Predict the 3D structure of the following.
Amino acid sequence: MPRAFFVFLSACESAKGDETQLDESVHMAAALMFCGFRSVVATMWNMDDLDGPEVAKAIYTELFKGGPFNPDDVPYALDTAVQSMRSRGLPPSRWATYVHMGV
């Protein structure tokens, strides 16, 4: 996928490796980066079903507000989504699972 850049994985444990193969760091997020995606937002553990669509909407809203897509904005867009969850008093288990990998 030569033009692939960003993917948002709204799935549980999409950035979690296999516990039985501790010397391997292959997980869904890493596999997509290997396939050519340069920036991935994924989760390290189970996520609440209500959070996935909310976080995705917040990220994409941030990425496309005020102009064309800027790859440098991906981690900041995730931070905005997480800060919104934190400001509502949600427990860390709900917002800390989201991670950004890549550029």
